[in-house]
Amino acid sequence: MNHTRWKLNRERAVSDGSTEPEEAASDRAEIRLAMAFAKAVYDRRQRLGLSQSEVAQRAGLTQAKVSRIEGADAVPTLPLLRRLAQALDATLNIALDSDREEVTFIDRRAA
């Protein structure tokens, strides 16, 4: 089934009053957060004009680890979040709500 048909089926089920299992909703929220973080790291790195290797070197990581983070394939620990924020010369802000996740890096010079 292609994505368009899946989306239509899901929307139809929701409009019929069906609800998705709690576990599926939780998984979806975790994926959204990982993707928001991955996008924030990628966007900040691009703004600074850095390669993945340069960020990795600054953070004491491997380029492969930075790639996995930007691909939303790795779940960073709190110490890793701090190292990435320092490597990207930024303050990391993460806002979590029941229906949205927002991850931003704010330039330390602007803060």
TrEMBL record:
<feature type="domain" description="HTH cro/C1-type">
    <location>
        <begin position="41"/>
        <end position="95"/>
    </location>
</feature>
<dbReference type="InterPro" id="IPR010982">
    <property type="entry name" value="Lambda_DNA-bd_dom_sf"/>
</dbReference>
<dbReference type="Pfam" id="PF13560">
    <property type="entry name" value="HTH_31"/>
</dbReference>
<dbReference type="InterPro" id="IPR001387">
    <property type="entry name" value="Cro/C1-type_HTH"/>
</dbReference>
<protein>
    <submittedName>
        <fullName>Helix-turn-helix transcriptional regulator</fullName>
    </submittedName>
</protein>
<feature type="region of interest" description="Disordered">
    <location>
        <begin position="1"/>
        <end position="26"/>
    </location>
</feature>
